[in-house]
Amino acid sequence: MRIEPVFIFDLDGTLVDSVYQHVLAWKHALDAEGIELSVWRIHRKIGMSGGLFTDQLLRETGFEISDERAERLREGHAAAYRQQARYIRPLPGARELLSWLSEAGIPWTIATSGRMETAAVNLAALSVDPDRIPVVTRDQVKYAKPDPDLFLAAAARLGAPIETAVVVGDSVWDMLAAIRCRALGVGLLSGGYGQDELRQSGAIRVYDDPADLLRHVDEVGGRR
Question: Among its keywords, does the record have Hydrolase (predicted)?
Answer without folding.
Answer: yes
